[in-house]
Every structure is written in structure tokens, then in C-alpha cells.
Amino acid sequence: MTITNAYQGSMLMIVAPSGAGKSSLVNALLQSEPGLTISLSTTTRSPRPGEVDGKDYRFVTPEVFKQERDQGQFLEWAEVHGHFYGTSKTWIEQQMQTGSDVILEIDWQGAQQIRKLIPVVQWIFIFPPSIEALEERLRKRGQDEEATIERRLAAAHIELQHAHEANFIVINDAFDQALADLRHILAASRLRSGPVMARNPVLLKRLGV
Ligand code: GDP
Ligand code: ADP
Ligand code: 5GP
To answer: Where does the Guanylate kinase-like domain start and stop, copy by copy (predicted)?
Structure first.
């Protein structure tokens, strides 16, 4: 994978413990930002009620996942809460070639791998306002079995220890404030010197830069 400052777009990774509000925030952000697309992850976990194959995830069997992994189809992959999750390499490469802005909703292990491959990536960590609120949100979402909720809550503590590796932290207490924070991060990311220069070659030439 060859990544340089010539990449015109922005790449954001959203990492948070389960129930912090990643998917809700990312979905709201996508609705108001037409230039932004989300990476469709592949997973071996079962779909939740209402989740659609090809929209929320590509749902595959462990056998298919391992085959694709061994063929090198994933830019990163990780085992999270007992299931495999991975990011498609070709899809990301295509988005970067066209200069699109992309957002990845991945776990901290995947985020560490992506950062090594694509140093210009911006890592955003979402904090819940409290552990109690995290638990309440997981239960209120009502889509996971009790054992799954317990497992995800137990993992939250470990995941939170990786917050210091992120470039940004958004506290998802009042939803609209958290969404506004995400918009500001995207806006700032789009104004980084590398992408601005890559988007404006003619101006650079005229300015003698
Ligand atoms: P959520 O935590 O409630 O959003 O539940 P999900 O089942 O959607 O995601 C489970 C975990 O897998 C989360 O930490 C995600 O960020 C992570 N995840 C999702 N897709 C990917 C991926 O493509 N790669 C990696 N490494 N992690 C992923
Ligand atoms: P994640 O993708 O991080 O697991 P979700 O986006 O599924 O989290 O959110 C978990 C639950 O919390 C959902 O039911 C969602 O509606 C709710 N939620 C998200 N953000 C807030 C917020 N700021 N205040 C209250 N509830 C929230
Ligand atoms: P869930 O099963 O609740 O949808 O996701 C559980 C965790 O897996 C979340 O932390 C989510 O961000 C992470 N996850 C989802 N897709 C990917 C992926 O493609 N790669 C990695 N590394 N993690 C992922």
C-alpha cells in the first residue's frame, strides 16, 4: 500500500467501547456530509435484528473470512468480542485514489494497524459520559443478549486504555454537541496542509510553492 501526502481526502477512524454511540454518530455525520463514505467491514458475527448484509456489514462465515484473510484481502483485521472483523484493502485503495473522504468504524487493534500503513489517518476516540451510561445504552439498544452485553462491558475497560493513542476525543454526552465536535474534526482534517496542497496544484504553481 503506497500512501503519501498526495492523498487529497481525509481518513477518519472512530474507535470506542460498544454502546458509546459510534454508529449513531457516524450515521448522523454521513447524512450531513455527502462527500464522506464509510468503509463497509466484513464480520463473522451474526446480524442484529434490522442489520442488513452489504449495508451494515458484509456478514460471512469464519471459513470465508479466513480464506479472504489468507489471500491478503484485508488491510487490517482483528478478533473483537470473539468474532473476526476486517477492512477491505481494495475498497480503501480505490477511495484513496479518487481522493474521497472515508470513515472507518473499527476497534483499537485495527486502528493501530491502519495508522502504521496510513500515517495521515486521524484517530477519533468516543467516550461515553460514564460507565453507567455505557451500560444503560447497551441495554436500551436492546439488540444484544445478556451474555453479549456482559462481555462488551468487560472489554470496555481495556478499550478505554487506548484513548491516549487517538488524535481526538469526543465525549458523547449530549448527542448534538458530540456530532458538532465530529463535524469540526472533519472540517479541520480537510484543511490539513497535505490535502490542501494536493487539491490545489495550479494555485501552488502560481504561488511558486
Ligand atoms: P458496536 O461496538 O456496538 O458498534 O458493535 P459492532 O459489532 O458493530 O463492532 C464490534 C467491534 O468491531 C467494534 O469495536 C468495531 O469498531 C469493530 N470493528 C468493526 N468493523 C471493524 C473492522 O473492519 N476492523 C476492525 N479491526 N474492527 C472493526
Ligand atoms: P456503538 O455503535 O458505539 O455500539 P450505538 O450508536 O449503537 O453505539 O449507540 C448505543 C445506544 O446508545 C443506542 O441505542 C443509541 O441510540 C444510544 N445513544 C447514542 N448516543 C447517545 C447519547 N448522546 N445519549 C443517549 N443515548 C445515546
Ligand atoms: P459490533 O459487533 O458491535 O458491530 O462491533 C464490535 C466492535 O468491532 C466495535 O468496536 C467495532 O468498531 C469493531 N469493528 C467493526 N468492524 C471492524 C473492522 O472492520 N475492523 C476492526 N478492527 N474492528 C471492527
So the answer is: 9-187
